[in-house]
Design goal:
Distance between the termini: 37 Å
Strand order of the largest sheet: 5-6-7
Shape: extended
Number of domains: 1
Helix content: under 10%
Strand content: 35-45%
Radius of gyration: 22 Å
Number of helices: 1
Structural class: mainly beta
Order of helices and strands: HEEEEEEEEE
Number of strands: 9
């Protein structure tokens, strides 16, 4: 298979590929929480390819999704609260039902320290 870099791509030099994506997607497997291989359930939706700007990276599957907060107790869902929705797209905003109340759902700040060795020097990186 031939690959080109982003700098080499000019919109007219896309390499010919014989990829069978449909078969490949059907064979996708993931690990569940017991580390057993399970086959993914297929998901189907229309695929948006812009006619005015069919550049690589501008296409996406069209779907809408809801954003919910789920309360879990003893491993089981005991309730959920609808927080908003999002229509898939490159510039579509997240529509929140109550934007002022979203601070309850913010991510925890986590610092990660990575040690590395470059040549004969040992260093660390704080992310």
């Amino acid at each position: 298979m031939k690959y080109i870099t982003c700098d080499e791509y000019d919109g007219k030099n896309t390499p010919n590929r014989t990829l069978d994506l449909k078969t490949a997607f059907r064979e996708v497997r993931c690990l569940d929480y017991h580390n057993m291989k399970v086959k993914e359930t297929p998901t189907y939706a229309p695929f948006y390819i812009p006619e005015d700007d069919p550049m690589n990276g501008r296409s996406f599957m069209e779907f809408s999704t809801d954003l919910s907060a789920v309360t879990i107790k003893d491993g089981a869902s005991i309730g959920s609260r609808n927080l908003g929705s999002w229509k898939a797209g490159l510039s579509n905003p997240l529509t929140l039902n109550d934007a002022d109340n979203m601070s309850d759902y913010s991510a925890q700040l986590v610092y990660r320290i990575v040690t590395m060795e470059v040549g004969n020097e040992l260093g660390y990186c704080l992310k």
